[in-house]
């Protein structure tokens, strides 16, 4: 053992920052979970607060908002996965078919751009563009003779805005992985398929797609795990009391009740519940991909 | 073997031009808004280029 450590000391040194990061920022804070089983009092501290068992979990499940929160979180994540996952694949496949390489590189570069602006700026831009008075999207709607829509104040539009802006921001960046996977496809396979009389569509279906399938599976597993971990910032920046009905997700609810209102124990209980569900999602997505195909994360 | 330009190539190029416009226009628009005189922005007259001459933009420099 010690011999092995001595032999691999430089590798272990390289690994150390990652391990330390996870221990300090992920594992140590996990001890805070204990306050979800206690009636946490800021002045008594974690150890001296009295135990209350599952009180806060029961409080959450008997709360009429609980169902709506879980549904919103799940639906937002599901739509994001459903529409956001194929978008970079389609973009990569279209880019792959472009023969004029300057044009291809130009489109690629431009589509990466939105990835580099922060969520706060994106939310600000969305507020400006979707504004019923000065937003250009409403200008277009007005030009066709329809009534302007106050997108950010209508609950029915929230999921569309969230998912569409997510695709706008991340599709180009996401396509990098697929384009990289596409370069590993053997050109001989294309030639063979062409000689066998396969058209463009058939070549895409039988050569390109199987070529990038492993990358797709791994990204699908990773994305499925995040289905409930809806980015807090973006929802927080785009929602308002008028759209809580569809926009309020677990993380924003935890923030409002746990931190703003100071119910630390209750907030922790809700968040831990979400973590457990999230874990089940990653685990089952990985299990499914191992069963269906050969690739899986572990 | 000489390849001719298929209909798909044209459609594909148009689709990707759509992607370019959709990603680039918000940037151009934000740049134009940030460089325009504020009364043009409020009156919603900014489209592609900045509006308002430099002399009216007291916030410049």
UniProtKB/TrEMBL annotation, chain A:
<feature type="transmembrane region" description="Helical">
    <location>
        <begin position="74"/>
        <end position="95"/>
    </location>
</feature>
<feature type="domain" description="ABC transmembrane type-1">
    <location>
        <begin position="70"/>
        <end position="285"/>
    </location>
</feature>
<feature type="transmembrane region" description="Helical">
    <location>
        <begin position="264"/>
        <end position="288"/>
    </location>
</feature>
<comment type="similarity">
    <text>Belongs to the binding-protein-dependent transport system permease family.</text>
</comment>
<keyword id="KW-0472">Membrane</keyword>
<dbReference type="InterPro" id="IPR000515">
    <property type="entry name" value="MetI-like"/>
</dbReference>
<feature type="transmembrane region" description="Helical">
    <location>
        <begin position="157"/>
        <end position="183"/>
    </location>
</feature>
<keyword id="KW-1133">Transmembrane helix</keyword>
<dbReference type="Pfam" id="PF00528">
    <property type="entry name" value="BPD_transp_1"/>
</dbReference>
<keyword id="KW-0812">Transmembrane</keyword>
<dbReference type="InterPro" id="IPR035906">
    <property type="entry name" value="MetI-like_sf"/>
</dbReference>
<feature type="transmembrane region" description="Helical">
    <location>
        <begin position="204"/>
        <end position="228"/>
    </location>
</feature>
<keyword id="KW-0813">Transport</keyword>
<feature type="transmembrane region" description="Helical">
    <location>
        <begin position="12"/>
        <end position="37"/>
    </location>
</feature>
<protein>
    <submittedName>
        <fullName>Sugar ABC transporter permease</fullName>
    </submittedName>
</protein>
<feature type="transmembrane region" description="Helical">
    <location>
        <begin position="116"/>
        <end position="137"/>
    </location>
</feature>
């Amino acid at each position: 053992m010690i011999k092995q450590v001595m032999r691999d000391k430089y590798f272990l040194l390289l690994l150390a920052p990652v391990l330390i990061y996870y221990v300090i920022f992920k594992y140590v804070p996990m001890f805070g979970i204990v306050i979800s089983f206690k009636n946490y009092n800021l002045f008594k501290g974690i150890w001296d607060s009295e135990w209350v068992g599952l009180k806060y979990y029961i409080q959450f499940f008997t709360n009429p908002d609980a169902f709506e929160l879980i549904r919103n979180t799940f639906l937002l994540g599901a739509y994001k996965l459903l529409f956001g996952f194929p978008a970079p694949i389609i973009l990569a496949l279209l880019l792959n078919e472009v023969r004029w390489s300057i044009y291809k590189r130009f489109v690629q570069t431009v589509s990466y751009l939105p990835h580099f602006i922060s969520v706060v700026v994106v939310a600000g831009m969305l507020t400006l563009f979707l504004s019923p008075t000065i937003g250009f999207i409403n200008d277009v709607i007005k030009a066709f003779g329809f009534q302007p829509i106050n997108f950010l104040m209508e609950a029915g539009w929230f999921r569309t805005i969230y998912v569409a802006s997510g695709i706008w921001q991340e599709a180009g960046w996401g396509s990098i992985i697929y384009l990289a996977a596409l370069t590993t496809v053997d050109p001989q396979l294309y030639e063979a398929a062409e000689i066998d009389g396969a058209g463009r569509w058939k070549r895409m279906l039988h050569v390109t797609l199987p070529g990038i399938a492993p990358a797709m599976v791994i990204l699908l597993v990773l994305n499925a795990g995040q289905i409930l971990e809806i980015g807090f910032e973006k929802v927080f920046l785009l929602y308002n009391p008028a759209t809580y009905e569809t926009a309020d997700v677990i993380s924003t609810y935890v923030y409002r009740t746990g931190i703003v209102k100071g119910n630390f124990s209750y907030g922790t209980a809700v968040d831990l519940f979400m973590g457990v569900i999230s874990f089940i999602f990653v685990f089952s997505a990985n299990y499914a991909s191992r069963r269906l195909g050969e690739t899986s994360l572990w | 073997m000489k390849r001719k330009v298929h209909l798909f190539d044209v459609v594909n190029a148009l689709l990707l031009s759509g992607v370019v416009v959709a990603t680039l226009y918000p940037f151009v628009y934000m740049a134009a808004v940030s460089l325009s005189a504020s009364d043009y922005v409020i009156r919603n007259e900014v489209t592609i280029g900045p509006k308002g001459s430099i002399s009216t933009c007291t916030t410049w420099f």
